[in-house]
Design goal:
Elements (H helix, E strand, L loop, with lengths): L5 E6 L2 E7 L8 E4 L2 E2 L20 E7 L14 E6 L7 E11 L4 E15 L4 E13 L2 E17 L4 E30 L4 E24 L4 E26 L2 E26 L11 H4 L17 E30 L2 E26 L34
């Protein structure tokens, strides 16, 4: 993100997607050692880069504009992640880190990485293996303000600009445990002086256990909304590639194949909306002066706990799967135009096969079709003793 024209989108404080030249991340192509990665999202083409641990990388290449020998389907640029190769000398390392989360007052964060590399057979065969496991608390808190037009006060009639007033104040608490498992195995060997082969395999899995709570003071609609949400999800990445390079006189020939697959799954996403609409705010909050300070809406609460009711509930089961198969043949011929001028002619063939699937099942109901709205309460000491907030009702996780 220190490069000009490049920004990082973050999730829970962790860098996840790259914005190049202000374009949405779905317009940026992501590759590992030249192998295109499938999308990790079920709704667009973006790739979550947090899947790959930095310990697996030797460098990152950024192309804001594709060169003539690159695929031209990424108007936002291309990013290539280079995986480490075995150096001339044998190496091995183990790294263990621990962490403290002040927001939740826990010491359970950790990260462990192990790597080893060795060259054998007089240095012709290199072997590199890495493994990584980590667990981090990505919890957070957020405060949001919503603004809108006060159409009764027009500041600029020519441009139809109205006075802005606060509509809602929302507090959100996000509890999230994120776990990640990475592994890679790479082989590179030389067959004589003019042929070398590279084989690479990568596996990565990220799981997210989330429990979010949201409380919104909606002055515009005269209601308070409580929304607890449980969400369990995982993303799996598997990638394998083989590439071979030959030097035939002045002609350099490269050919190979690759297969990559990303599988995302959210088998459990459950959320509820509780409303309180019985005189939830002091009438003074509707004054023009107070509407201009939405950060103070909480000072005008006068709602009763037993007046809250379950408005609706939603259960979602979703997932996505994308597979990319690639085969390629490249020819490269350098030639001299003059004493100090040289050029390279490149040509080649490439096959890309892509399969993408998405599932989305949603069950939704307005609770008042089933029973009295007062049956469920957002608080544990509610009118009829059925609570929803402040605890994880399931008591367990799909991924742990």
């Amino acid at each position: 993100s220190r490069l000009p024209g490049v920004a990082i989108n973050r999730s829970g404080g962790e860098g996840s997607k790259v914005v190049v030249r202000g374009l949405d991340p779905k317009f940026t192509a992501i590759s590992i050692n030249g192998v295109r990665l499938p999308s990790t999202s079920g709704t667009d083409r973006s790739v979550d880069l947090s899947l790959i641990s930095p310990e697996l990388l030797s460098g990152i290449e950024l192309f804001k504009s594709p060169t003539p020998d690159m695929d031209g389907d990424a108007i936002g640029g291309s990013i290539n992640l280079n995986i480490i190769r075995a150096p001339k000398q044998a190496r091995a390392s183990i790294k263990v880190l621990g962490g403290y989360n002040d927001l939740t007052n826990t010491y359970q964060d950790y990260k462990a990485t192990a790597s080893a590399s060795q060259r054998i057979w007089d240095g012709r065969l290199g072997i590199t293996a890495t493994a990584n496991v980590e667990r981090f608390n990505r919890s957070g808190e957020a405060i949001r303000q919503t603004w809108g037009d006060n159409t009764s006060v027009i500041l600029d009639e020519e441009n139809n600009i109205a006075l802005q007033e606060g509509n809602a104040l929302t507090y959100e608490a996000q509890d999230e445990i994120r776990r990640r498992y990475n592994g890679s195995l790479g082989l590179d060997f030389e067959l004589g002086n003019k042929t070398d082969v590279t084989i690479l395999g990568i596996y990565s899995r990220t799981t997210r256990d989330q429990f979010n709570q949201q409380e919104s003071y909606d002055i515009n609609n005269n209601r308070i909304t409580f929304r607890p949400e449980l969400r369990e999800s995982a993303i799996n990445l598997a990638s394998g590639s083989v590439s071979t390079r030959h030097q035939l006189g002045k002609v350099r020939v490269e050919w190979g194949g690759a297969y990559s697959e990303v599988r995302g799954e959210t088998p459990y996403q459950f959320e509820m909306d509780f409303w309180n609409t019985i005189s939830p705010f002091d009438i003074a909050v509707y004054d023009d002066e107070n509407r201009g300070r939405p950060e103070e809406f909480h000072r005008y609460l006068q709602a009763k706990d037993d007046a809250s009711y379950l408005q609706q509930a939603r259960f979602i089961n979703s997932g996505n799967n994308e597979r990319i198969s690639t085969g390629f043949l490249n020819l490269e011929l350098p030639f001299q135009l003059a004493n100090n001028v040289s050029a390279t002619f490149k040509t080649g063939l490439k096959y890309v096969g892509t399969t993408k699937e998405r599932i989305y099942d949603e069950a939704f109901d307005k609770n008042y079709y089933l029973r009295r709205n007062t049956y469920f309460s957002p608080l544990t000491d509610g009118a009829e003793g059925i609570g929803a907030l402040l605890v994880d009702p399931t008591g367990d996780f799909y991924y742990s």
